[in-house]
């Protein structure tokens, strides 16, 4: 089997490889992917530093063309790349193709942004002096991505980094190197100069640590666990580098008595269980007022009975497997904790077998939970959801905000008054009304508050806040 190598200074390199295993069929090796050493990471950083002066001054048309080519190729290969994504991560094939399309759209958007770079010319308070305010690239950007969105998250970090004239050292999650390698290959063939994008696959403890330790990385953008995010922050402060963190979530969805029951159930099922619950925007806390509580739980339970858990590549599958054995163990540990805490297991919670060996888990619904239980406060990152009964809207809002996280939130209601109040008073970076908490557009800002996020928002034109630095220049007329 061919080894997919690291890309360093425009050259493919590396012979030490690890297997990429399909969580829907653990007998299948998706591919062999090189494992970078700390020395490889240092070489990649040096290559990016060397390439920065020329790339940072490159023409906007050159950047536009390269990003546009990458977006076009990803779109043309959406079925192929979607299948790769489904096989390596376990997301269903339709979801995986949809994510691939989103990656293409992101490259398309930032190809356009490369032609829309602008500044300001303003008058000074002093006579005969002009002031120019411009944005300049930051430098070498370290990109560290998670396993749950193997092509979309790399796209929404790499595309703006290149658009604004930065060079990149990119370390994807060790579990899902395939889509990341494909992006690097596509950009390499699209015409990126040597060293502008460097791909170093491997262990976070080796490659990621070398990136954190380097004084030559001007900024690090990270999506992943809260614990690792804190390590990124600590290391970055030592080097006085810019850092951007997207971390955990314990997102609430409020269901009020006046909600449309069908809308509420669909939004809750999608938010909590689809993508196997492996989304930082997933709703794992359903906060339901007492007037609709029993009807909602009954309807959601019936909905869960119809959800098909199976091989991600199989037609008709609604939910694929958990990503690997370690995450599956985490999920089952929390199911045990929920029972011990006194929550009622209303549905699921069992490991299941399918035609192919994989990490299959029933969607799991707890009722009679409280907001003080661990299953209601800690991010599980699996298809495990708890229902919390509350008296009214005021208690629902207070419960929703009673969390160390603040990424996404939702409300199901037909009341304009409550919807408007919730949008204003929910302590989350993104708020959804009668929609799933998971699922955002590619051209608008993404990010949260409190323990969920730190630094400027990702995506859309707001990405410029992280990937550029502002310069103010004065000229005497």
Structure description:
This protein has a seven-stranded mixed β-sheet with strand order 15-16-17-14-13-19-20, with helices on both faces. It has 15 helices and 23 strands. It has two domains: 3-247 and 452-476, Aldehyde Dehydrogenase, Chain A, domain 1; 251-433, Aldehyde Dehydrogenase, Chain A, domain 2 (3-Layer(aba) Sandwich). 40% of the residues lie in helices and 24% in strands. The model has no long low-confidence stretch (mean pLDDT 97). The chain starts with a strand and ends with a strand. Strand 16, helix 12 and strand 17 (384-390) form a beta-alpha-beta unit. It is globular. The protein is of the alpha/beta class and 477 residues long. It has helices at 38-56, 60-76, 78-89, 93-114, 152-163, 177-189, 204-213, 226-238, 261-273, 290-305, 325-341, 374-377, 393-401, 416-425, 464-467, and strands at 3-4, 6-8, 11-13, 17-22, 25-34, 120-123, 129-137, 140-144, 167-171, 197-199, 219-223, 242-246, 251-255, 283-289, 344-347, 364-369, 384-390, 405-406, 408-412, 430-433, 449-450, 453-454, 468-476.
